[in-house]
Write a structure and sequence with these properties.
mainly alpha; Four Helix Bundle (Hemerythrin (Met), subunit A); flat
């Protein structure tokens, strides 16, 4: 990938990182609300639970953004981690943190469906 495209993706990733960091602050506000009414407390607890799940997912997303930025720096951004071919630019525009090309991702999803049918645990998301 040429330096102009890498620069474009770096800007995209940095903007995504900024948005994800702002979202973490918003989650912190949700988790700190306290009430004395039972219904309000239950609602607040539910919101806090959802906020915690969101925080965990957002944290993983931030790690993936950092990983993509590191790949830009070391010159491996956009390379499929499975087959080593260049991931299509269209895919990277839609999912800048993609680790797999479309073919490898489809194969991974097929394997995940088989594993889920057997009652196994899904490992990764992309």
């Amino acid at each position: 990938m040429d330096s102009l495209k890498l620069s474009k993706f770096k800007k995209i990733l940095l903007a995504l990182k900024e948005d994800a960091l702002k979202a973490e602050i918003d989650v912190g506000i949700l988790k700190s609300e306290k009430t004395s009414d039972d219904v309000d407390t239950a609602t607040s607890d539910n919101a806090a639970s959802l906020a915690t799940k969101f925080f965990a997912r957002n944290n993983l997303y931030l790690k993936r953004i950092e990983q993509a930025l590191k790949k830009i720096e070391d010159g491996t951004y956009g390379e499929c981690e499975n087959c080593s071919i260049q991931i299509a630019e269209k895919r990277l525009l839609v999912r800048p943190i993609a680790l797999l090309c479309v073919d490898c991702k489809e194969e991974q999803e097929k394997e995940e469906r088989k594993e889920k049918e057997k009652g196994g645990i899904l490992v990764d998301w992309d």
